[in-house]
Amino acid sequence: MSNSSANNLDAFWMPFTANRQFKSNPRMLVDAKDMHYTNAEGQKILDGTAGLWCCNAGHGRPQIVEAVSKQIAKMDYAPAFQMGHPKAFELAARLSAMMPNGLDHVFFTNSGSESVDTALKIALAYHQARGEGSRTRLIGRERGYHGVGFGGISVGGIVTNRKHFGTLLAGVDHMPHTHLPEKNSFSRGIPEYGTELADELERIVTLHDASTIAAVIVEPVAGSTGVILPPKGYLERLRKICSKHGILLIFDEVITGFGRLGSAFATDYFGVQPDMITMAKGLTSGAIPMGAVVCSKDIYDTFMDAPENTIELFHGFTYSGHPVAAAAGLATLDIYKEEGLFERANALAPYWEDALHSLKDCPNVIDLRNLGLIGAIELESIPGKPTARAFEAFLKCYEKGVLIRTTGDIIALSPPLIAEKKHVDQIFDTIRTVLGEIA
Ligand SMILES: Cc1ncc(COP(=O)(O)O)c(C=O)c1O
Description:
Layout: H1 3-6, H2 19-24, E1 29-33, E2 36-39, E3 44-47, H3 50-53, H4 62-74, H5 86-98, E4 103-109, H6 112-129, E5 137-141, H7 150-155, H8 159-162, E6 172-175, H9 181-184, H10 200-208, E7 213-218, H11 234-245, E8 248-252, H12 266-270, E9 276-279, E10 291-296, H13 297-303, H14 323-338, H15 341-357, E11 365-371, E12 374-379, H16 388-399, E13 402-403, E14 405-407, E15 410-413, H17 421-437
Parallel strand pairs: 3-13, 5-6, 5-7, 7-8, 8-9
Antiparallel strand pairs: 1-2, 2-3, 4-10, 9-10, 11-12, 12-15, 14-15
The chain binds pyridoxal-5'-phosphate (PLP).
Pyridoxal-5'-phosphate is lined by residues 111-113, 116, 145-147, 219, 223-224, 252, 254-255, 280.
């Protein structure tokens, strides 16, 4: 008898999971509706993380279910290359209309990782098309997370995601991260100190010369590393330096897109416009995998200079703009608009901030950070056992019916945008109790 039939959890190699630990005591979710999951034991679990930062409209939304069901029955799939179907064009137009002026062309992918690698490839090909093929360097940031493709981990800055995978892409450099606990701890919203860290980009440009640099990619708010916020004026300064040197600026908005900060995108929140935006997750509220890269008119037009019968970009996925995903995306955008969910997130954000900062005196809390409906609780690590304290908090919160997410010893929170004050209270009351229990 094979191992997998002896133990029916064995065959699935779970991603970013301690497989053996999980399988010895599984946390199995079987149902989801609005703000809650239900687990295999029938317990309701309040979703404090919108799944993985993706279910911004909450779970089991009938409009999405209906749109997806209708589309799959009508046309399950259409080839993505040299053929089209109406919903992909409609969704691209809708997305483009949500963007600041000049960011108006959409390339579809199936995930955040694919969006990032797509944007990096577009940046390289763009400079080549303009006759500046020497611009091949890509600049990321320490502690950045840009998914798990080779491009994404190369520009990313999370050590464990990089160190096992060889030499990665050549010609990548990294700016410093902007986490300055000694100056900014317990900041409410955007931290005051660290704007000058953007000038490190000038230093990198001086080192390599601008003529070798294609693009800079940053998360406007870094999520997966444990929530790192941009200091006041930092993103503006990055924008200025990129413009001055002809370097493309890419905002990875995979988690900040679709209302997380209380505006449609972080570009709106900060009033800083990049040349490309990568997105995924909230695009379909997590219901069907889909991602996208939105590009500036200048980038698109540069490619469209080629003779008319040539393929302008040798890149794409079998499922780019998949009809069922596009249907889910359209229904999701309708919900965001009809229910004013971005405005709702914005209105709830001050209450969220107060609730988060009420944990200041809980045991082992060394920092609290927030923006929009994002919150982070950084815990003092147990000496010699990094991650153990936060993971215990995660397990205990789950036992008490609240789903949180941890990375290192940081608890990161990002509830669906349909959250109500009572849900915010339950999340933070539970965490307060648990931090007391595990002190
Ligand atoms: C900023 C950012 N970029 C890219 C990704 C990768 O997205 P995916 O897991 O859909 O490939 C994530 C996922 O959390 C992310 O937060």
